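Posting here for the record, re: AHM.
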Amino acid sequence: MPPTLNQFLSRAHREHSVPDAHLQRLIGTIAEACKTIAHQVGKGALGDALGSTERENAQGEIQKKLDVIANHILLEEAAACGALAAIASEEMERIQIVPDHASKGPYLLLFDPLDGSSNIDVNVSIGTIFSVLKRPYGEPLTECSFLQTGSKQVAAGYAVYGPQTMFVLTIGDGVHGFTLDCTTGTWQLTHPSLRIPEHTHEYAINASNARHWYAPVQRYIEELIAGKASVRGQDFNMRWIASMVSDVHRILMRGGIFMYPADRRQPSRPGKLRLMYEANPMAWITEQAGGAATNGYQRILDLIPGQLHERVAVFLGSKQEVERVTHYHRTGSCFPE
Ligand code: AHM
Ligand code: MG
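Prediction output follows.
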């Protein structure tokens, strides 16, 4: 019988003293909240939770009903677990500080409660992404406390609500996947020590934006499409689920590169995805599984955030592909070699 998530965390604590008791409780609480979200997602039209609200989130996007429900579930459960000082979410403009009357802890939690929400109403896989940082002491607890590089994360992961419900976690010692056993309600370690293959034949990008891409991305994708006839000398396959969790999960399972580049539509906007609760946790998971993650120029985990909800270009997955597209950006090389 594979270990459950709780057994896995207890063993990691015994063997490496990481995660500490607070972090164990926090990860357990997030996983429980994901179970509740999975249950809500699974109800579909029977749960009166499909469709949109009339409200916008901090980024000016119309919230789906399930965005709001998932945010509420995570917020309520995490705030009460005693491990946190404050919480930030894609769905909340400002951070939420755990009130003085509640039990507090040394960690900060960031999450995207329901990633890929355009897929909710059409019954395609979606997920929850989270990132945990240590609370800096010796300064007031504000949004600035969250503005740490991704390399400071102490835990990161996601849940994917698909044909199987899975919880994928890193605490800095590899990447481990747990599958929800619906008969017992436990997360079982089914995918220990996941590794992303270095070579791949698969890429993921929203190709409908091709006309807006900058030259390094144009060149890289043109070569992939040309396949055997190009400098690449092999054919590539394309997949785009429009749910980062699902696309990254596929890459963890069988390799590939995921891209959401900056483009010419809004030159001041460096991509669509959010650095602190989308790119950072996925970048750390990718690196922990032997892959790479950059914004085209720099390692994502080294980027110093200026704002809680800031956006970033993302190239992540199989190492050799990420290195190639990053090289095209760094050298400004737009023409075949
Ligand atoms: P969301 O957090 O509002 O759901 O947006 C993020 C999602 C990612 O999951 C996905 O990779 C991307 O947006 C899809 O964008 P597009 O609709 O441009 O293909
Ligand atoms: Mg998202």
